[in-house]
From TrEMBL:
Domain Aldehyde dehydrogenase: 12-473
PROSITE patterns per UniProt: ALDEHYDE_DEHYDR_CYS, ALDEHYDE_DEHYDR_GLU
Protein name, per record: Aldehyde dehydrogenase family protein
Keyword Oxidoreductase (UniProt): yes
UniProt KW Oxidoreductase keyword: yes
Family, as annotated: Belongs to the aldehyde dehydrogenase family.
Gene3D superfamilies, per database record: Aldehyde Dehydrogenase, Chain A, domain 1 (3.40.605.10), Aldehyde Dehydrogenase, Chain A, domain 2 (3.40.309.10)
Protein keywords: Oxidoreductase
Length: 478
């Protein structure tokens, strides 16, 4: 059995107390035991990162680029093995997990390139003879806190730019996915990263996470997770006057217009709402459907849902894996239950499934006859649950789409250029999809949302530099 440890100052550090890493597809399958670090390990990790920072932040960009490239190559070369590991601990299907591993590898390779082209500017000063230089420098030690639903891609998309621009890292991954975090630490270490530049501390959010955000040796915090935890981080960061970047929940709308290609609409809904077990911050949990196409859309979607196999994440026949754990499963059922109590009709799914292996299996759930004010359409479920909200026309559909405290991703399925253009312009979301699922984004472009979904500079692509560097303006009089 595996034992997952924290990685501090280039050394693996275990603890007496451990937690179980259980396979959600088969709860009899205990994958390993994870260390439960405490505040002392956070202190040691931050101290190691602070010690490593002066040398790393001034290290040759070629060295940084090479380490990131080697890391990306190893992740890509081990895609099948790491995909199995990720599918086993998180429960997404092997295809989805391997795709996530590939994405993580590609992010490291993209950032290997960015390390070599850190931009600056040279301008004439308003004072004669003087020149002004605008350069970017590393911020310092970055505290990172990540969720369980993308166990390698999210740590990758935070770590890769942090290292590319010369920062040191202390990361606390989610308790449910220690194996993927350990793999990343191991690969970075063997790729030649100096000791102390990347530190991993396994443990509870309320202990390790809280200690990390309160630690005076942390210069910035990058967080992905739920809104409640994010708000707490924002307050602490503000009181310490350090920068923070928060990526949080979503209640993403997919608008289906009467003029939509029905096949595209159904596939977008199926993928966006239910694949990855709906456990994506970009999942389309609100399907806003124009009245002319409503009945046909619902009928076709239900018939596609009936053909979906829910099963063990490693079974090649599986389309949707299990829910990540019992707590999330119960929370999903309670959302469905309360939606029905509010008057929604459960037209399909929403049931616990007993399959060949004991796991947290749930059939994807579709609720109809809902309206946007219902709790089910305002609160994030984070499971395979979607509801249909009827709309009379484009204006009503757009108003419903925007009537949410979140603003991560949104989508429209239409053949009308006018509707597509108007939706793209007026949707209050950070990412807008036309004739494509709300989930599923490219690794080389900015990722993030508006309103309660995101706070601070964007992650990923060239925009990641905004968070991970500090701008310096230098005046030179020769
Ligand atoms: P969570 O907020 O429960 O946990 C996220 C991380 O925060 C974990 O590592 C957890 O241990 C840590 N944490 C918990 N309490 C803490 C505290 N008091 N102080 C510091 N850290 C603490 O979220 P989750 O259940 O792991 O993930 C699901 C959530 O993540 C959903 O809301 C989802 O929408 C969101 N998410 C957002 C994005 C995005 O990019 N917008 C991507 C993926 C997931």
């Amino acid at each position: 059995m595996e034992s997952y440890k924290s990685f501090i100052g280039g050394k693996w550090v275990g603890t007496e107390a451990t937690t179980h890493n259980v396979n959600p597809s088969d709860t009899k399958d205990l994958l390993g035991l994870a260390a439960q670090s405490g505040i002392e390990h956070v202190n040691q990790a931050v101290a190691a990162a602070r010690e490593a920072f002066p040398a790393w932040s001034t290290s040759p960009i070629q060295l940084r680029s090479r380490i990131l490239d080697v890391t990306g190559n190893e992740i890509l070369a081990r895609r099948d093995e790491l995909g199995r590991l990720l599918a086993s601990e998180e429960g997404k299907t092997l295809r989805e997990a391997t795709g996530e591993v590939i994405r993580a590898g590609e992010i490291f390779k993209f950032m290997a390139g960015e390390a070599l082209r850190i931009p600056g500017e040279v301008l004439d000063s308003t004072r004669p003879g003087m020149t002004v230089e605008i350069t970017r420098e590393a911020v310092g030690v970055i505290g990172m806190i990540t969720p369980w639903n993308f166990p390698i891609a999210i740590p990758a998309w935070k770590t890769a730019p942090a290292l590319a621009f010369g920062n040191c890292v202390v990361i606390k991954p989610a308790e449910l996915v220690p194996a993927s975090a350990q793999v990343l630490a191991d690969i970075l270490h063997r790729a030649g990263l100096p000791d102390g530049v990347f530190n991993l501390v396994l443990g509870k959010g309320s202990v390790v996470g809280q200690a990390l955000i309160e630690h005076p040796g942390i210069d910035a915090i990058s967080f992905t997770g739920s809104q409640g935890v994010g708000e707490n981080i924002a307050q602490i960061a503000a009181s310490r006057m350090i920068r923070c970047q928060l990526e949080m929940g979503g209640k993403n709308p997919l608008v289906v217009m009467d003029d939509a290609d029905i096949d595209i609409a159904v596939e977008c809904a199926l993928d966006g709402s239910f694949f990855a077990t709906g456990q994506r911050c970009t999942a389309s949990s609100r399907l806003i459907v124009q009245s002319g196409i409503h009945d046909q859309f619902v009928e076709r979607l239900v018939s596609r849902m009936k053909a979906i196999n829910v099963g063990h994440a490693l079974d090649p026949q599986t389309h949707i894996g299990p829910v990540v754990d019992l707590r999330q499963l119960e929370s999903n059922f309670s959302h469905v239950h309360s939606a029905r109590a509010e008057g929604a009709e459960l037209i399909y799914g929403g049931e616990r499934l007993d399959l060949a292996t004991p796991g947290f299996y749930m059939s994807p759930a579709l609720l109809i006859a809902t309206h946007n004010d219902m709790k089910i359409n305002q609160d994030e479920v984070f499971g395979p649950v979607a509801s249909v909200i009827p709309a009379a026309d484009f204006d009503e559909a757009l108003a419903i789409a925007n009537n949410t405290r979140f603003g991560l991703s949104s989508g429209i399925v239409t053949r009308s250029l006018k509707h597509a253009a108007a939706f793209k312009r007026h949707s209050q979301a950070g990412m807008v999809m036309v004739n494509a699922p709300t989930a599923g984004v490219d690794p080389h472009v900015p990722f993030g949302g508006r309103k309660a979904s995101s706070f601070g500079p964007r992650e990923q692509g060239r925009y990641a530099i905004e968070f991970y560097t500090s701008v310096k303006t230098s005046y030179i009089q020769p």
